[in-house]
Amino acid sequence: MYQGIRIAGFGGQGVVSAGILLAQAGVEDKKNASWLPSYGPEMRGGTANCSVVVTDGEVYTPIVSAPDSVIVMNEPSLPKFEPLIKKGGLLILNSSLINSRPTRQDIDVVCVPCNDIAKELGMDRIANLVALGAFIKKTGAVSLQSVANAMKKVYKRAKPEMLELNQKALQAGFDFVK
Amino acid sequence: MTIIAKKPQSLTDIPMHYCPGCGHGIVHRLMAETFDELNIAGRVIGVAPVGCAVFADDYFACDMVQGAHGRGPAIATGIKRSKPQAIVFSYQGDGDLASIGMAEIVHAAVRSENITIIFINNAIYGMTGGQMAPTTLVGQVATTAPKGRDPKLQGWPINMCEMLSQITGAKYLERVAVDTAQHVMAAKKAIKKAFENQVKGVGFSMVEVISQCPTNWHASVEQALEFVRTQMMPQYPLGVFKDEGAK
Amino acid sequence: MTEKTLRKGNEALAEGAIRAGARFFAGYPITPQNEVPEYMSAYMADAGGAFVQAESEVAAINMVYGAAATGTRSMTSSSSPGISLKQEGITYLASADLPCLIVNVMRGGPGLGSIGGAQGDYFQATRGGGNGDYRVIVLAPNSVEELGNFPKLGFELAEKYRMPCMILADGILGQMMESMAFHFDPIDPRALGKLDWAVDIEKNGRPKRKVFSYKGDNLIADVTERAKRYGLIEKTETRWEERDCEDCDVLLVAYGLSSRACLEAIQKAKEEGLKVGLFRPITLWPFPAQRLAKLATRAKAVLAVEQSLGQMVQDVKLAINGQTPVYLNAYPAGGQPDGNSILTAVKSCLNGGKEGLFDLQEHAEGFAYECKRDLSLGVQGDCKGGK
User: Which chain C residues contact residue B76 at CB under 8 A?
Assistant: First the structure.
């Protein structure tokens, strides 16, 4: 198993932290993992994205130029990342905020209303975890339990009720994909 | 035979290379006497500069480090932070301290490094052969100011004690001279105080010594001493600019 | 100890350095290495060491000079433009035979350049950016795990040979997180024993010690004596990694992050039935020339992959000395190689194509440059063509 993933969205949508969570979950699963953010001035507002690799073997380059999977959380990220996806790869699309639809026919597209689901749970900010849940269901790259374990390490200062809410968002995304 | 005067133990037997009439040798001796009297000789680690005193690492009997031009306060910082029990000094000239090493001296003061700076101000670059220093007086001739320092082109001399006195971290600043026996005795007192401060943990202490350079001033020793009194002292008044050691 | 954790490269490096016994750090903020001084400011004091945020990179390296003179395991870190500023201190450290660790988390250059990861400082690191005849041991990690473990190796080599050692990383290695493990237990530097040359406060009647850079009349003896250590290092301290090198048609040569993209290229090449190997220098100085030369004789072509206009490739050519054609696949100024682009260059090596291969003079083909100044005045002959 070798999964190269790109996660993209607005700064503040939690795409960078979702990536760390995914990489940490890979480590919890005794896999090798890497995470690389877009860093520098790019971070100051505008779009953010990160590359994640989770694999049973060794991580080649941490720069995922041809991702197996892409999660896009906002409209501008779709045209930027859709073309990069490997043939037969996966695109998770946040349909709450993205009106356009991908044009490629050779990829697997899953539209998830991440923000709507998150709002139903009571917090818009956890839309990233809804998307992550959907990704996990589709790929099996890491286990749900590993992400739960990873949350405790990545969100060290989070209150128990917040962790519980995060867990619900993850589960909701997971359950959304049939 | 009765010994009435001897070399301080904190100086080595290596003959000094300084020119006749130069102030460096006097200041070295005052520092060495201080180490002996304060009984700190075993703890002293000195930093020698680039300039005429580059060979100071031969003359002091303590462990010595000689580094890059102007970086003495940074090197001393590295030594002191690694060996907090050491008594660390940085010995610097005016080009070294007030020109190329301006940032290092200012920030050592800002951090109030608990070190002692001995600053020899003779208003000229000595080792390189008499170029204009940041402390060269207005009108003073130097090899890079052949018509004399012109403020329109080269600005005015810089007064380091006055400037550093604005910095909270600078705890003791005094300007002394070594042109007369009386002044030498006062200089000794100031140098001793600057090292006592370090022993007590007071913080950044600096003694600026107005010194004579007969060679590069193209003057006899007599004329040089006269220059110190009539030209240097009006620009660089002697005195204590800051003393927070007692507080 | 072998348990893998997810760590950011810069933090793994900083933690690895403290574990390796670093007890003095001075640095100045510059992207993309800021996590190093930040980590040090948080944890160095707990380890019984000192952290100083210096007023400049120049001051920082000179603080290291002072701290290293006391025998303390001392280090600084910076990124390319900051490393340029440290060159003065590095040549002084070399001249005074002081061991220390210098970390360069490279970014795009020249000048202020960009903050993206790059490999433009190979010359500066291996040829000495400072004045005079000296060398610096240069270690090139290609993973967060190596970033975390190389400080120990770096300090040990630096102390063994009494000279500065540099870890040459890059912005992406510094910024990325990766699963890694430390392969050594934390070291208490007090247990390492005292160095017989370091300035100290416990003199106990021993002769005075001097750490100094001005050698005057003794300079020739000083430099030639030190050169023996350099020769010994070249003979005994080269380090490298080989992947599928024994039986390949194209031998890739890459260090640091570029070598990771080569792993991807090798994978893709396998799928297409191409035989591609990777030779990864881990010490850039000393460069593992001998082994590379031996392996190169079995390959049809050697392809240097680096994120510069072609710097390491010169060492590759020196090592191979014309036995096998050497090509360059270049990604200057922060460009990033990936498996596909490297594979394109590999194919060019095999089929005589040009795609993906970089050559400065071919790069300038059809390019004319006009200077607006009249440079004809008073010219006595410009010696063009060796007149």
Answer: 66
Residue A178 — pLDDT band, cuts 50, 70, 90? confident
Burial letters B100-109, b for 16+ CB under 10 A, else e: bbbbbbbbbb
Euclidean distance between CA atoms A170 and C2, whole angstroms: 30
CATH assignment of B24-243, among 3.40.50.2300, 3.60.15.10, 3.40.50.970, 3.90.1280.10: 3.40.50.970
| CA atoms in the 13 A half-sphere facing the CB of B72 | 38
Query: Residue C264 — very low, low, confident or very high, per pLDDT cuts 50/70/90?
Result: very high
Same CATH fold assignment for domains C5-195+212-236 and C241-363: yes
pLDDT at A67 over 80: yes
Hey, where are the domains in chain B? 24-243
Domain residue ranges in chain C: 5-195+212-236, 241-363
DSSP assignment, residue C213? S
Q: What is the mean pLDDT of residues C336-346?
A: 96
Distance between CA atoms of B29 and C262, rounded to whole angstroms?
A: 64
**Could you tell me where the DSSP H helices lie in chain C?**
9-19, 35-43, 57-69, 80-95, 122-127, 144-161, 171-175, 219-236, 256-271, 289-296, 312-320, 339-351, 360-363
- CATH 3.40.50.300 for domain C5-195+212-236, yes or no, is no
- Chain C CB contacts of A65 under 8 Å are 336, 338-340
Measure CA C198 to chain center: 27
Tokens 């696949």 belong to residue: C329
pLDDT at residue C380, rounded to an integer: 63
Nearest to C52 among B67, B77, B103 (CB): B77
Cα–Cα distance measured from residue B145 to residue B131, given in angstroms and rounded to the nearest whole number = 7
- Please tell me the predicted confidence (pLDDT) of residue B246: 61
Q: Which two tokens stand for residue C1?
A: 């100890």
Q: Which chain C residues have a beta carbon less than 8 Å from that of A36?
A: 172, 175-177
Q: Which residue, C241, C132, C135, C186, is CA-closest to C21? A: C186
Element (H, E) at A104: none
Phi-psi region of C166 (alpha: psi -120 to 50; beta: other; left: phi over 0): beta
Instruction: Evaluate if residue C160 carries a pLDDT over 60.
Output: yes
CB B87 within 8 A of CB B44: yes
Percent of chain A residues past pLDDT 90, beyond the cut: 89
C382 CB burial (10 A radius; 0-12, 13-18, 19+): exposed
CATH numeric code, A2-176: 3.40.920.10
Q: Is the dihedral of CA A100, A106, A111, A114 positive or negative?
A: negative
Q: Taking the domain C241-363, which CATH number applies?
A: 3.40.50.920
Tokens read off for C259? 């070598």
Q: How many CB atoms lie within 10 A of CB A55?
A: 18
Q: Which residues contact A80 (CB under 8 A, 6 or more apart)?
A: A8, A47
| Whether A36 and C176 lie within 8 Å, measured CB to CB | yes
Instruction: Please state at what angle helix A160-176 crosses helix A144-154, rounded to 10 degrees.
Output: 150
Pair C265, C228: CB distance under 8 Å = no
Give the minimum alpha-carbon distance from C270 to chain B in angstroms, rounded to a whole number. 53
Residue B174 phi, psi (nearest 5): -140, 145
pTM of the model: 0.95
* A140: exposed, middle or buried (Cβ count in 10 Å: 0-12, 13-18, 19+): exposed
For residue C176, what are its two tokens?
């990325």
The identity of residue C19, as a single letter, is R
Q: Which of C65, C85, C131 is best to mutate for the B interface (most B CBs within 10 A)?
A: C65
Please give the average pLDDT of every successive group of 10 residues along chain B, which has 247 residues: 90 95 97 98 97 95 97 98 98 98 98 98 95 98 97 98 98 98 98 98 98 96 97 98 83
